[in-house]
Amino acid sequence: MADGEDADAEPQASYRAGCFCGAVEVEVTGKAMFAGYCHCADCQAWSAAPINAFSLWKSDGVRITRGEAELGTFNKTEHSYRKFCKRCGGHVMTEHPRMRLIDVYANLLKGYQHQPTLHANYASKMVSVRDGLPKYADLPAELGGSGEMLPD
């Protein structure tokens, strides 16, 4: 056992995700820092869906395990670097440098039980979701947003 390891500590969970064709694979380890649904116009356009299920992980808990050379990047703004497979175009993850977190799309993570705790960018919603979760106009303050809440 390495110095500083706790013999009674449970092993950290890990999950794998990949692109549509399987050329790119990533692994996340640990626990998502935030999980929820994003309603921003950029996520809507990128995913071609009204809502994006996100899971935000610490950068050091995400690693590319296959196909790093096949991973392309697009950034419309300095806040989000969207990663996709150059072969199939499949979306994989988004790096958020300002938050120091990476969104590995929840629906791609095999075996991951998505437990959303919030809705982000609800002011841009296309559909209303009445689920009792907090609805942020933009982002929670701890993620750099205003923290302004909207009604369910």
Task: Describe the protein.
The model has no long low-confidence stretch (mean pLDDT about 95). The protein is built from 1 helix and 12 strands, in the order βββαβββββββββ. A hairpin with a 6-residue loop joins strand 1 (about 15-20) and strand 2 (about 25-30). About 25% of the residues are buried. The protein is globular. With about 150 residues, the protein is mainly β. The strands form 3 sheets. It has a 7-stranded mixed beta sheet with strand order 6-7-8-9-4-3-10. Strands 1-2-5 form a 3-stranded antiparallel beta sheet, with no helix packed on it.
At a glance:
The chain has one helix spanning 41-47; strands at residues 14-18, 25-29, 34-38, 52-58, 62-66, 71-77, 80-85, 91-96, 101-104, 118-120, 135-136, 149-150. Helix content is 5%, strand content 38%.
Share in β-strands: 35-45%
Query: How many whole angstroms does the radius of gyration measure?
Result: 16 Å
Strand order, sheet with most strands:
6-7-8-9-4-3-10
Tally of DSSP helical segments = 1
Helix-residue proportion: under 10%
Q: How confident is the prediction overall: mean pLDDT?
A: 93
